[in-house]
Design a protein that fits this description.
This protein has 139 residues and is mostly helical. Helices cover 78% and strands 0% of the residues. It contains six helices and no strands. It is globular, with a radius of gyration of 17 Å.
């Protein structure tokens, strides 16, 4: 039982660290666009946004499988993007604030859905690679 609890604590710690690091890099990518090659445009921020969702979910649900977590992160990210099709005055007012824009976005784009998919796929790949390394160490 203690091993399982220790594993949960480790997952919480690395997930919290991943959330914080992702937020810092994401905000930096908006403030200093030169961090990433110009050819990527605004999409590194979208990739990082979906990664933040993934890591928050990992923190909240440390026992969730990687595929399950990836599906939930994509569903949340896609729902956020699709919500941008709704443009009532009250929500445009919220989106006009800094935090509202960062969380809710402003205009729907199919390319953002692709960026979210890339971001979540990268997180899931990292976790699966780590799981692979841990299994290899046990053998």
């Amino acid at each position: 039982m203690q091993i399982a609890e220790s594993s949960q604590v480790k997952k919480h710690i690395y997930a919290a660290g991943a959330v914080l690091l992702t937020i810092v890099v994401g905000l930096a990518s908006r403030k200093y666009p030169g961090i990433f090659p110009a050819v990527f445009g605004k999409y590194p921020g979208d990739v990082l946004w979906a990664q933040m969702v993934y890591w928050i979910l990992r923190f909240v649900f440390p026992s969730q499988s990687v595929p399950g977590l990836a599906i939930w992160a994509l569903l949340i990210s896609y729902a956020d993007e699709l919500s941008q099709l709704y443009q009532a005055a009250w929500i445009r007012h919220i989106r006009a604030t800094t935090i509202g824009h960062l969380v809710l976005g402003s205009a729907f784009s199919w390319r953002d859905l692709l960026a979210y998919t890339v971001g979540v796929a990268l997180c899931a790949s990292v976790e699966l690679f780590i799981h692979h390394l841990r299994r290899k160490d046990r053998i």
